[in-house]
What we know:
It is a single chain. This protein has one helix spanning 60-63, and strands spanning 3-6, 41-43. The protein is low in regular secondary structure. It has one domain (1-72).
Amino acid sequence: MPEVLFKIDLTKPMAEQEMPGHNRWHPDIPAVVSVNPGDFFRIECKDWTDGQIKNNDDPSDVRDVNLKVVHV
Length: 72
């Protein structure tokens, strides 16, 4: 199994992670890891809502999503 370079705790929001993540690449956000061409690696991630939309078939998850938390 490839090495996990970016690990997250699914029970915490992205802002509370050991290494806070982000939902896009941006030149003002510094890189936390680097890889070489051909390297095999894994990263862990959360969905764009930071876990607000659950797999419970409840449409209120989408209706009530807080769009202000999607940028860390």
